Amino acid sequence: MTTGSDQGRPSGSRRSFLVAAGGLGIAGCLGAGTRSVGVLSAGSLARTFEEYVGPAFEAETGIELHGEYYGANAVMRMIEDRTKHPDVVVSADATLLRDRLYGAFTDWDVEFAANSVGIGYDEGTAFGRRLEDGDPWYEPALDSAEGDLAVGDPDLDPLGYRAVQAFALAEREHGIDGLRDDLLELVYEEPEEPQLMAGVESGSRAAAVVYRNMAVDHDVPFYEFPDAYSFAEPALADHYATVEFTTDDGYTAEGRPVVYNATVLEGADEPDAGHDLVEFLTEEPDVLVEAGLTVGGNLPRSVGAVPEAVDG
Prior knowledge:
By secondary structure, the protein is an alpha/beta fold. The protein has helices at residues 14-20, 26-29, 46-61, 72-81, 94-101, 126-132, 138-143, 158-174, 179-186, 196-202, 212-218, 227-230, 237-240, 271-283, 285-290, and strands at residues 2-3, 35-42, 63-70, 88-91, 108-114, 117-121, 149-152, 188-190, 207-211, 222-224, 244-246, 252-254, 259-264, 301-304. It is built from 15 helices and 14 strands.
């Protein structure tokens, strides 16, 4: 098991990981009858939960998953404002969840998957054809019409601020002065993260800066950014941290690898079902991989006071 700041590869099975961590109570709860669990999740996992995790979880446990999906920063605001009261919260930025929710709403989480940042694109557009021909991505991006390339809203979701951070790192990596600001003047900011790829599918956008799984979800080509700014390499964490973005509500996010984590909120209506779902996310890596996520390395990993087992 990997806990706290340990970075080694976990030993044993994912089930042994949770037993060693205090357990999340799946043994006594699975198959205990029809129940439901409310999930408030990062928008990049909308199809992951609705088309992969939800059906598989219900088939195994009999528990229905009811999800809502927004940018992860927007998710944290909803919890803090108490406008939403889910059982399970899932973030596309593990540190964001801890910074915003630890103390008042939870004191633990489990990291269960990783991802990479790049460009999902329509290969039939001039932008897409140039990527297919091997042009550096920033050349067609700079030559594109305003709004051809979409990014998430950096004030609402980590994918948005990771796009801004990627542009800054790319400027440094390729020695192109002003690249970040020039790109930000051209891009369209999509306020609804789950809709980023919809614009590419409909033809209103040539491409979007997305996570790999989002391109897989929509069956479009994916151009992964180089390691220096894909946010996919844990070994480059210190390098990613050299850039940051401050949201309009004053939260400053350093660049960091893309890691998804989940927790069950204190006072959840269905904590047992929530615990079952969190364990399922660690027990069924094949479901996550099929959805385009990455599982391996030091995942799953628990942080904080993972709860004792809860009998159903």
